[in-house]
Amino acid sequence: MPIYSVFDFCLESQVPLPELVEVNCHPDVTLKLSKKNHLSPTNKSLKSFQGKLDNTLRFRVHEGKEISIAPYEDVDLSLIQSAIYGPIFSILLRQRGLLVLHGSCIVIDNFAIAFLGASRAGKSTLAEVFYQKKFPVVTDDVLAIHFNSANPQVVPSIPRIKLWPDSALACGHQLKQLPSIYPDSDKRYHSTNNTSGDVPLAGIYILSQGPQLRIDPLKARQGFLNLVKHSRGKVLQDPNSREKHFEQCINLLQAVPVYSLTRPLALSKVWSLVDSIVDHHVQTNTHSLSVV
Questions:
Q1: Rounded CA separation 60/70 (Å)
Q2: Rounded Cα–Cα distance for residues 35 and 33 (Å)
Q3: Which of 46, 104, 253, 271 could tie 127 with a disulfide, CB 3.0–4.6 Å?
Q4: Each residue of 22-49: b (16+ CB within 10 Å) or e?
């Protein structure tokens, strides 16, 4: 079976995952196909989480090392891959001790800048414009953070950016050249050259809509509520995991500033918005962090 590198671990998989980079290493995680009757419908313990995604598959994620999936009949491979890349990997990362948020993340001068927000808030569009301006991308969707260094570090994710059609067109793409993420989905994607190593996180921006551009620091309570709101990985269903998750959110807030970024949603303004974010990053002295 092929072995892939993603999120700082090596994955041996019975399911082809062509967006990931194949490597020659000992697998830390295995992904195997199973039968539905071997997997119970639900088990909310994070240590050995079992669940199902409607009309796609049942799955089991065990102790951060084993993934078993049982796809339903005639499910398209791209749907299975999307389930693996999103909810299943998010649970696996939580089991491996990482804080997992729903956001995009790019790199400015060797420091990571993350964007959190509701669906269609513009996270992926920002990542795309930064990418076109030659800034490296860490992730477009699953934002995984570890605390094994002096500064919280973001680990590289699936090397692709997903875009809604209006964003893709505004960013200069032709829709016929971008595949859908799965059949009957309007959302498209393209592959990227993501960062190859962990990056220290220097700032988090919470995206919202407003008549004009404003970037304001958030107080600790507001920051905490936003981190919890934009968490991934079923963390709030398991009491033991919930406590650790809240602790990680507090640790992140103590180390990394969180800002409210309010701006018009007009796609024509996103290019100048990127310049404003770069300027804000420089002005707030985030370079005082040390690269580990």
A1: 9
A2: 7
A3: 104
A4: eeeeebbbbbeebeeeebeeeeeebeeb
